Amino acid sequence: MSLQPKRGIARLQACTHGGINHAELKALGIDPETIMDFSVCTNPFMPPPGIKEIINNAPIEQYPDSGATELTQRLSESLSVPAENILVGSGTTELIRLIAIAYFRNSGHVLLLEPTYGEYEVACQIVGTQTIKYRAKEEDNFTPKINDVVGLIRRHLPQAVFICNPNNPTGKYLSQADIEAILDAMDESLLILDEAYVTFMEKGWNSLGLRKRNNVVVLRSMTKDYGLPGLRLGYAVAHRDIIKYLRPALPPWNVNAVAQKAGTTVLMQKAYLRQSLKKIQECKRYLTGELTRLGFRILPSDAHYFLVKAGNATECRHSLLKHGILVRDCTSFGLPEYIRIAPRTMPECKKLITAISKIANSG
C-alpha cells in the first residue's frame, strides 16, 4: 500500500474562485485575451500608467528580501502603523493559511459566517480543525444577525472567528459596534478580520486600532486595491506578539521581488487610487440602475461588487461567456440562483448590459 496523506488532506477539495479558467476557455475555443472579466473584484483602473516599466527593473537575479523591508516601511508610513505590527504576504490567502497553521488546533472549532470566502474553510481543513457555521438568510439580504453570532460564540467558545468585512460575495459591511460586540463575546478566541475589499468602501471605519488587542488580525489586499492579481500581494496588521509568532512560519522569500517593487511603487499613487475608486462607484451605479431597469433583483451591497438574482447562475454564466463576458457563478457559495458582478470600465459595463439584454430578450 502506498503512503497516504493525513485524513484531512485526503478529503480536501480545492476552493472555487472567480477569474479566468484557461482550460475551460481552451475547450470552448475562446481566446482568454478577449474576455471581459466581471467575476473578479479587483480595481479595473489599476495599476497606474508606467508601473509595468518600473517593475521591469526589479532585481530578479537576486533572492527577494524575506522581510519585505522597504514595502513594510512604506505600508507603515501609509497606514500610520508601526512596522512591527505589519506582515506582508503573497496575497491574503497565504496569510489565512499561515494563521491556521500557527494558531488552530485539532481539538477546537472555528466559526465561519456564511455565505463567505471558501478559503477559510479550506485553511481549517488543512490543519484538521472543525468548523461551526452561521448562515445568514436570504430574507435578511444575507445580513448576519449579530445577537445570533454572539450567542454562537458564547455557546461554542470557538478558538477563532473569520469575518470577511465587507463580505464576499454579499458585500455586507459590519459596523465598528458590530465587531466590538463580537469581540466582547470572545475571550481567548482569535478574530481574523478580512478586509480585502475595504478600500472600495465609500464609508468605512478604521479597524487598524484593533492591532492593540492581542486577539485580532486584520487582513488587507493590495492585489485588489491596485489591480495586481498576477503578482499576489497582501498584508496583516496585528499586535506585535502575533506578528512575532507568524513571521517565522512564513516560507522564506514568500513575496517575490517584482511584487515588492510594485507594491512599494503603487503606494505612492494615492491620487490615482482615489480617482479610480470614484470611477468604480460611477460604474457600479450604472450597472445596478440598468440591471434593475431590466427587471433583475439586485441585493443591497456596501462594497463595489453585488449579487444579482439570475435564476440559474450556472446557465447565466455560460450564456454570458459566449458573449466574451465572465461573471461569478455563486453556486459554490451555496447561492445557485445568484451571480456576482464587479464593475469594470464604463465601456465594458455597457457591453455587459447589452449582452444581458440580448440574452433576456431571447428568453
Q: What is the CATH superfamily of the largest domain?
A: Type I PLP-dependent aspartate aminotransferase-like (Major domain)
The largest pleated sheet is described as: 7 strands, mixed
Number of helices: 14
N-end to C-end Cα span: 54 Å
The level 1 CATH classification of the largest domain is Alpha Beta
SS-based class = alpha/beta
Strand order of the largest sheet: 2-8-7-6-5-3-4
Report the radius of gyration as a whole number of Å.
21 Å
CATH topology of the largest domain: Aspartate Aminotransferase, domain 2
Tell me how many strands there are.
13
Q: Estimate the global geometry from the Cα principal axes.
A: globular
Helical percent range?
Answer: 25-40%
Number of domains: 2
Mean pLDDT: 95
SSE order in H/E notation? HHEHHEHEHEHEHEEHEHHHEEHEEEH
CATH A-level architecture of the largest domain:
3-Layer(aba) Sandwich
Name the beta content range. Answer: 5-15%
Unreliable stretches covering 5 or more consecutive residues: none
How does this structure look, described?
With 363 residues, the chain is α/β, with parallel strands linked by helices. It folds into two domains: 132 residues, Alpha-Beta Complex (Aspartate Aminotransferase, domain 1), CATH 3.90.1150; 216 residues, 3-Layer(aba) Sandwich (Aspartate Aminotransferase, domain 2). The protein has 14 helices and 13 strands. Strands 2-8-7-6-5-3-4 form a seven-stranded mixed sheet, with helices on both faces. It has a four-stranded antiparallel sheet with strand order 9-10-13-12, covered by helices on one side. Strands 1-11 form a two-stranded parallel sheet. Strand 12 and strand 13 form a beta hairpin. Helix 4 packs parallel to helix 11, helix 5 runs parallel beside helix 6 and helix 12 packs parallel to helix 14. The N and C termini lie far apart (54 Å). The mean pLDDT is 95.
